[in-house]
Design a protein that fits this description.
The chain is an alpha+beta fold. 21% of the residues lie in helices and 21% in strands.
């Protein structure tokens, strides 16, 4: 065989071998488009998109951080629904739920001579909860720097400290705590408390969940947002 024949034969053999290699590669696991040239798996799109995680349910916490034995509060309040949570002066007051601060009183302007309703709370905050409930705390000794109108807060975030400002002067340190629908602003007569918080506070203090959402919604359906005391 001449040189040309040898070259032609070699070319035929090489071509056949290449064809066999391609065929073998096509049949070999891992040679599909799901694999790139360096044999690293390339994930194909999922046929069904993964489900979006459900949002966490509303979570409430007890609004005063102190030793349980040093915290006291009763089932009833004097002339309207609310709860006075007595605790050592300076104990941390925390956000009972996630939400947004909507009102803050940074000065104690209460006078026993005038006894204006809007001044009775002394240093105080009002929180529009993400659950649709308004939470109110007053008579604080101090307010945290982050406690300002428009601030977003998390459940358990420190908002200030227990004190006796406003009409609580001369009494033991305590946090006045109220629950109401999100009305206002400036409606101190509703903000101070529309339904009794006692059963909710007891649950939160024990570390269990009890939501005031339904009760507050029912109160608003019946009373609306009163425009006067």
């Amino acid at each position: 065989m001449g040189t040309a024949g040898v070259r032609r034969g070699t070319g035929v053999v090489a071509g056949a071998l290449a064809l066999l290699a391609v065929s073998a590669c096509a049949a070999r696991p891992g040679s599909s488009p799901e694999f790139d040239e360096v044999r690293k798996h390339v994930a194909s799109p999922a046929e069904t998109p993964s489900a979006t995680p459900a949002p966490a349910p509303p979570h409430n916490v007890f609004p005063v951080r102190a030793e349980a034995a040093s915290v006291h509060y009763g089932r009833v309040h004097h002339d309207y629904p609310a709860t006075d949570v007595f605790a050592p002066c300076g104990s941390a007051v925390v956000a009972p739920a996630a939400g947004r601060i909507v009102e803050v009183s940074t000065a104690d302007t209460w006078s026993s001579a005038s006894n204006e309703g809007e001044d009775r709370g002394g240093l105080s905050w009002s929180l529009a909860g993400a659950d649709g409930v308004r939470y109110y705390g007053s008579h604080l000794a101090t307010l945290a720097p982050e406690t300002r109108p428009g601030a977003t807060v998390a459940a358990g975030q420190v908002l200030g400290t227990v004190g006796r400002t406003g009409s609580a002067r001369g009494t033991a340190c305590h946090l006045h705590f109220g629950l109401s629908p999100i009305c206002g602003p400036g409606d101190w007569w509703t903000r101070r408390g529309a339904l009794t918080p006692y059963t909710y506070l007891r649950a939160w203090q024990r570390g269990t969940q009890r939501s005031p959402v339904a009760a507050v919604a029912a109160w608003r359906a019946k009373h609306g947002c009163p425009r006067t005391p």
